[in-house]
Write a structure and sequence with these properties.
- The protein has 18 helices and 26 strands.
- With 551 residues, it is of the alpha/beta class.
- The longest helix is centred in the middle third of the chain and has 16 residues.
- The chain is globular and about 75 Å long.
- The termini are far apart.
- 56% of the residues are buried.
């Protein structure tokens, strides 16, 4: 029976080493380092796996088993799953899925040589040379991607049923909300996991993230590892790609939550309606409790009689509300948090921007469903820190320096509006747009930044396979369309490191410098190669240089 035996060192041996830009490959016009960022290694696997009979998986997937692919299919068992041939371990089900550039079945021979016990694919994959004469069972399904999540969940023992998975979807705010949820859970004494854009954490141990939401078999294996490690609650970002591509199929959510919707990912979705339809899949019955911010028509469209509603606007009658918002002289925000049954508490949030109050109120509503008290919630909010999300960099300089992940028009506008409200001085912005992504948002981002900045420096973000100058030109067209009467000075510096240095050199006491677009990311992709680059590190270096010169 070809099943894999895993020892205690299996987890550590399969941790991803580094993170790759979650929006795709990254880039910079700056100095090119000698060594590119390594690709993400195989995800962790659980130590204890109960082999699952192949015939059970055939029935679970409602698949057709090619009879001449294995003479003893009924005797075989599966102990893992992956859709990457290079990650196959003995006893795995290899999912050979159709892709945009290649078919996974073309790599089936590599997977079989590594010990794959069976292959799941579609009719076209079954006809590929690597599978046509394969000596392992082949499960054929019309849409293998759609069933892969459920099959992987079955292989790993339905792990999401052993956890309280708290899913957050929406265009902006997923990361911040997930971190706020985790902080509240930890304040209440729970053992937590975390799955998101910045990182994955298992009971405090950090793994780098390759995607906002991992592929279906990786996600189910990750849940199984978390359950083994004693995790009880898992805040999780759920992207529209993950919902559309079935990455979260087979996952049962204790909570499904919605933040907001604005233009993004229209390179993947045809229009905003299709984008919203993808987000709506989290609310198709897979979530036991649904929590929705209703401050937009998109959120209101998700409301049912059972929905837990959230709002920062007056007169909505939402179950959870924030009122009396104010900003302190130190930049913190204060507000009054209102919950069901007349519960209220004064709250403090270190993160600027009204949108972050909405994120905090949403987190409070979710935490309430998990049994966290209002007192524990407000205590956690007061200590909130979110990497790369309105993250202040302070080394003693007399101006405010902030790194933020804003990489869509609405997010850029929100970040700059929040910072503008905190300063009497100038706002200096460094911003670029990613390549191989939604091209329509580039002039919109340029316009949003130009309208709110005294100085806008247009630079490279992650050009990927595109011409960086063409990306900048699209941004500049939108920025210059604002006109001098409504916008500030506009500069173009393709080298991102040089752009950050220039912004810092321009800053005077009382000014604000915003480095936007990459946030927590530690790499940039140029022509398919990911190079180390951190906005925070570069901003710190530029500030130190400025302080040394002025000393």
């Amino acid at each position: 029976m070809p099943h894999r035996l895993t020892g205690p060192d299996n987890l550590a041996g399969n941790l991803p080493a580094v993170s790759v830009n979650n929006d795709g490959p990254a880039t910079s016009g700056g100095r090119v380092p000698d060594k590119p960022v390594k690709a993400v290694l195989a995800p962790p696997r659980p130590v204890r796996i109960e082999p699952v009979p192949l015939t059970t998986l055939v029935a679970r997937a409602d698949a057709r088993l090619i009879p001449d692919a294995g003479a003893h299919a009924a005797e075989l068992a599966v102990t893992g799953a992956t859709l990457r041939a290079q990650h196959v371990l003995p006893g795995d089900l290899f999912a050979a899925l159709p892709g945009a550039r290649a078919h996974g079945a073309d790599f089936a021979d590599q997977a079989i040589a590594a010990g794959a016990a069976a292959v799941l694919t579609d009719e076209a994959g079954a006809e590929r040379p690597a599978l046509r004469d394969a000596d392992v069972p082949v499960l054929v399904h019309a849409d293998p991607r759609d069933v892969l999540g459920s099959v992987a969940a079955w292989i790993y023992g339905e792990p999401s049923l052993k956890l309280s998975v708290l899913g957050v979807t929406g265009t902006s705010g997923k990361t911040t909300t997930a971190y706020l949820i985790e902080a509240g859970l930890r304040a209440a004494g729970y053992t937590t996991g975390l799955i998101g854009t910045v990182e994955t954490r298992i009971a405090g141990e950090r793994l780098a993230s390759a995607f906002t939401t991992p592929e279906a078999p990786d996600l189910q294996a990750l849940f199984a590892v978390m359950a083994e490690q004693g995790v009880t609650h898992v805040p999780m970002e759920v992207s529209s790609h993950a919902l559309s591509l079935g990455r979260v199929n087979g996952t049962r959510f204790a909570v499904g939550a919605f933040t907001n919707l604005s233009q993004d990912h229209l390179d993947f979705h045809r229009d905003m309606e299709e984008y919203f339809a993808a987000k709506s899949l989290l609310f198709d019955g897979r979530s036991t409790t649904e929590v929705v911010v209703v401050d937009s028509a998109w959120g209101q469209a998700l409301v049912t009689p059972q929905t837990v509603t959230v709002s920062t606007e007056t007169g909505t009658g939402a179950a959870w509300r924030a009122t009396d918002m104010a900003t302190t002289t130190t930049g913190e925000q204060t507000f009054v948090l209102h919950g069901p049954h007349g519960r209220t508490a004064p709250a403090t949030l270190p993160l600027p921007g009204a949108f972050n109050v909405a994120n905090a109120t949403l987190a409070a509503a979710i935490l309430d469903t998990a049994g966290v008290t209002l007192e524990q919630i407000v205590a956690a909010l007061a200590e909130a820190e979110v990497p790369g999300r309105m993250e202040r960099v302070y080394l003693g300089q007399e101006f405010t320096a902030v790194v933020d992940y804003a990489h869509k028009p609405a997010a850029v506008a929100q970040a700059l509006d929040a910072l503008r409200a905190r300063t009497e001085g100038r706002v200096i912005t460094v911003l670029g747009c990613g390549g191989d992504r939604d091209t329509a948002k580039r002039p919109m981002m340029g316009e949003a930044a130009a309208r709110r900045s005294d100085v806008l420096i247009v630079t490279d973000d992650n050009p990927r396979s595109e011409d960086p100058a063409a990306i900048r030109a699209a941004m500049l067209a939108g920025a210059r369309g604002v006109g001098p009467a409504l916008g500030g000075e506009i500069r173009e510096i393709g080298d991102r490191r040089a752009a950050i240095t220039e912004a810092v050199s321009l800053a005077e006491p009382g000014d604000v410098v915003l480095i936007a677009g990459k946030g927590h990311e530690t790499g940039q992709e140029v022509a398919g190669v990911v190079h180390p680059f951190s906005d925070r590190d570069e901003l710190e270096a530029a500030i130190r240089q400025k302080l040394e010169v002025s000393a």
